[in-house]
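Lab notebook page, bench 4
Experiment: in silico fold of construct C2
Operator: M.H.
Input chain length: 386 residues
Purpose: comparison with the prior construct
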Amino acid sequence: MVVDLVGFGMVLPILPLYARRFGATPLQAALLVAAFSGASLLAAPLWGRVSDRVGRKPVLVVALLGTAAGGLLTGLAGGLALLFVARLLDGASGGSISVARAAAADMAPPHERARLFGYLGAAFGIGFVAGPVIGGIATIAGPRVPFLLAGGIASINALAVAWRLPRPVRPTPTPHGQTAGGRSGLGAPVVAVIAAAFSSMVAFSAFEATFALFGHHRLGLALGSAAGVFAGIGLVLVVVQGGLVRPVIARIGERRALYAGLGLDAVGLAVLGSSHTWALAGPALVVLAAGEGLVQTTLSLLVANLANPARRGQALGFQQAAGSTARVIGPAMGGALLGASGSGLPFLAGSILSAIAVVAARLSLPRSRSTAQDVQITPLGTDTSA
């Protein structure tokens, strides 16, 4: 996933400027970015459901090959029409991130899932820190080079998955009623976690979309400084997800870790929205990033553990789709609330959403300390009826 997300991080920052070579308007350039998210939103549940039926490995290989084709088509495109096709293909292939999470949950014993999901979360931070740097360097060789390089990286990644990942596996279905998800994999606890994921991502994406303008109005933040702030947030996310999530969950459990993360989000956003100096804004950003690091990992972990093992990929796909939808709604909400004055309303609204998510999750999730289940994994095609 680190390799795949580095490729994504290479492409995203420079895509709007690249599209201008083909006469794209600002709206068309924005739609190119939205096309990726829209295709991912639609494809994620489908990828998850297919992987539940045929196994994770073949789906991951096909998806990575699709990502490779999308990157190569973007680099070789001669006009906007092919550029849109390439981004739709790349976005649909990117919906397989939920399959990677499901594969990790399938192969790891319950007590190791927190560590692996923390590493998967840290992969996002690494990708978004390293990707833009590599992409920026690659543009020196030509405007098409970053996209061709991203396609080449995805191709190599597909070969590595085909060679190194264990043979296709899928969980043995459990009898109806033995898991929180039932046969559909989307029982009330899973739906509650996905709803919390949606609310949290709306709040955080509203922050991401509006902080630079807010910081400019309130804190005198310059363009280069804003980039540095986001790099720092990414670093905190990597540290929390890669090193702190596992001991926190081991001590207090997934459920309480989620509440703690959402609570830190609520506090960080509330303080940030009312701050006029870096003395308040700086610590608030650290608290917010630490909370989001806990939230991102524990939400995926809870979905994986609560869902029917035979429907785990589909459940994680729906979670990814909810996150993609939130990334459309959050920036729109944040922009509407920010206004010309650069007010802190987007962050205060996000704080309220995070607090509501805490209450909703507490009312809906099981009260056991851990939700992890021991799941038997069998190779595809093995007869388990005996």
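Observations: The CA atoms of residues 271 and 301 lie 28 Å apart. The chain has a mean pLDDT of 81.
Next step: discuss at group meeting.
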